[in-house]
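Students often ask why we bother encoding 3D structure as a string. The short answer is that it lets us treat folding as translation between two languages. Here is a chain of 79 residues written in the first language.
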Amino acid sequence: MELDLYALNTLLSKRSAEIEKLVSGSGYLTKTVIGVGTFLLDNNGDLDLLTAKQRTTFDRFLKPLLEAPRRKPAPRSEP
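And here it is in the second language, the structure alphabet:
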């Protein structure tokens, strides 16, 4: 799988609330998921460098968010 590093960076920096929502109640920590994403960014998205636990974290939380189609935000109504 070829990772879109721009999309991953955007997910980690601007969409962290989505990660928190997905992680909530799972027993995982949000910072753990973000850490796996940061590791991937630091290593040019090389999934082969992940440990088995890191790969599970990626597959369970980051991959679904990266593959989900992005919706455009609703236009703001003028007051």
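Translate back mentally: The longest helix spans residues 52-67. Keep this in mind for the problem set.
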